[in-house]
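Inputs:
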Amino acid sequence: MTPQHQDSTRKKSVLQLDNYQPQPIEKKWLTVWQENNIYQTNTETNDKPKYYALSMFPYPSGKLHMGHVRNYTLTDVIARFKRMQGFHVLHPMGWDSFGLPAENAAIQNNIQPAAWTDSNIAHMKKQLAQLGLSVDWDREVTTCKPDYYQWTQWIFIALYKKGLAYKKEAPVNWCKNCETVLANEQVIDGKCWRDDSLVVKKNLSQWFFKITEYAQELLDGLDHLHGWPDRVLLMQKNWINRSIGAELSFPVDGHNARIEVFTTRPDTVFGVTYMVLAPEHPLVKQLVPAENQVEVEQYVQSASLKTEMDRLAADKQKSGVPLGVFAVNPFTHQKIPIWIADYVLVDYGTGAVMAVPAHDERDFVFAKTYDLPVQTVIAPDTENNPDSFRVENQAYTDAGILCHSGQFTGMTSTDAKQAIIAFAVAEGFGHKKIQYRLKDWLISRQRYWGTPIPVVYCEKCGTVPVSESGLPVVLPTDVDFSLKGQSPVSSSKTFLNTACPTCKSPAVRETDTMDTFVDSAWYYLRYIDAQNTQAAFTPEQVARWMPVDQYVGGIEHAILHLLYSRFIMYALSDSLSTEKTKLPKEPFKNLLTQGMVLKDGHKMSKSKGNIVDPTAIFNEFGADTARFFILSDSPPKADFDWKESAVEGCYKFLCKVWRCIGDQLAVLDDPLQSQLATAAFTPEISYSSLTGNTRLLYQTTHQTIAGITTDIAAEYQFNTVISKLRQFITHLSKFNGAAEAEKDPQCQVVLAYAVSSAIKLIAPVTPFIAEALWEKAGGKTSVHLAQWPVADPEALQQDTVNIVVQINGKVRDQFSVESGAEKAALASKAQSCQKIQPYLAGMVVVRTIVVPEKLVNFVVKPE
RNA sequence: GCCGAUGUGGCGGAAUUGGUAGACGCGUCGGUCUCAAAAACCGAUAGUGAAAGCUGUGCCGGUUCGAUUCCGGCCAUCGGCACCA
């Protein structure tokens, strides 16, 4: 017999045990829940506080993976918990269904992207249902359907009208493999975020969203997002990257032109020994003298051919060519050469810098390479004679004392920055400036499967947005998907020609589509009003449900999706809020970024062949086991390791739950049996008269309720929730109801409450088995609509506590004492402990520290 | 290079206004039941030691009666940004 063979027989026998049968249970309740619409979020207003629980919606790639299972289970448990706690819960689901994979599949298999997407959605929807999500499917949204993207287009037009959408020619990121442009956020290490292929710069006319308009607001908003992980806040902060400095203007010698530069170090302006323009800077062509033209053009040409990777690989080395023209430093009136170098980026600041080799590492390297002068103007604070300080082998980049700086000599860097800016303002060649690294969001894509940009080009009127009555601009189907370098939409015979919305004369449509991140930047608003055919949403409903109370998804969207969504919400809030209806600016109040699902310590991947198929797990062990397991071992933020043997352990635990609840139900008398499975079962129990094991069961029940409620509310510590559930079930299964009933008359009712609570407590995590047990216990309505139990504060205290006795902080003995004992009593009892006597011999107690309910510590020293 | 997070048994992890380190689970070992196996149940499981005890939360130091927790310095791993002027 091979080892594999042994393994499979073993597994089979595990599954045959007992009478917990997940498959029929899960099948049955899926149907019942659906027929009774128990997860439908009605729209009528009620007194309950609202709670919006949202998962990052999936791309319909074909089938569910374990990352989905983890994401959606987390959100679902939160939604179910909040529902039982009495919140009016919105828990929707949908499909982020535009995007390149559908288009690639279309080319490969000669099938319409829409058909490919639809069949994927159908399959994945079935899988999601199996997982037992308490989702209101009436609110499902699919971004590739006209009834959704019509409103994406509407938002585009709204932004356009506010001047937040514009078209311009600019050097943009071009992915050779995807044959389309990419947003700045989609270029990772000089490579395409989707397929890792190299990205090059191209000068193209493209549509942008003016996210930079909101740079400061988006930055400030981060301070109020207390429910977001710090690292996401930090990543967004770094991405926006604000720097404070000055914009200074340098006249060009012999030309009627000025070079504007941005600097964070105006205090070093007396050390400027040359200037640098980015190769793409417009002044380059304008200023270059005839004798330098060939050399300069060659350099510009070679810089443009470099990929982002090449630029990065060059690392510390710098190259450039002199333009052959000079600028004048307005502070020193010195003539300084103007150079062109690709270490200066055209799309940051003004695309030009004043070079201070003495106090900037990059300028220093460049100056050394081309033998340009280095003028020291800042000396360290510690220098006794600042004027004699000289930068030699490396730039001095810290702040310090100014030297060789005219009237500013002797000032500190901080003071000099102010003074120099003030001087520049007075003389009219500069001002204070705040600069952001964040760039405008490039949203056009030269691809087919996306939302058409709703714009037409009219010979008379120019660029005109499609009127609202002209929406949706429907994506044509008569296209050649294999068209390269421009949008396949342009191959459509029916799409291109139209009439201008303004003057009705012939016009042509924009053929680019939108970045799919535009679709996903507002979908959480559409859920709120998913069936609205008159508008994207009604502001009143948005004001009622937004912001999302809990958003759950992967860390990979820390910048992309989460920054774009914030921008769109800020923009919509600004344009749609009225006196009466105020829309929030921040879309997501709390954010939970879950870790990855690994398999035996490795990333799951097709190439490794270690992918665990959720459906196989559902079929073998049931969705409850999958849900229970994926919450059990690691906290949500950490990576989770999927281990086969551990899954089995979870399955066995559910068998134990089934048996335990069944056994205890059998012990209960009839009237109690029929009462315990009602929504708000809270029997009259006289706690003070409880004794023995019955008293202990009551305490344990309430401690478990309190512990689990706290763990979920605080940080979604589901791993400790699971641990507490296990301990409680173990306790409950050891409780001998028949024997205890003879000792304590209240045993039956305490047991009934424990059983009722146990079913409720497992309900969010394992909804199927909970529902089945609830029915078994006589429940007539769903346990998922029952009330979450509330802990009795009196029962949370232990009757007796363990007191540790320490000598100089080391544990030497311990004793048990009734809870609530006085400090003095604890100290004297501790003093008499046998085991500590040897440590007290020949010693004198200099201090006694008593922590009530915890410990007594004697500080001793030799007599 | 800059910024940040993390570091606890064989493994995942638990414990924080500083108070018994290792909850709960996985794995392993032993036992009960059985003709036998599976399941179930019970017990053991940081290292070292016969035991008392000693050592132990990445490393070094500090504060404290007492430090996984606070402070300083270092190391390692992971993540983000990266010629941002």
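Residues 644-667 of chain A form the longest helix (24 residues). Flag for discussion at group meeting.
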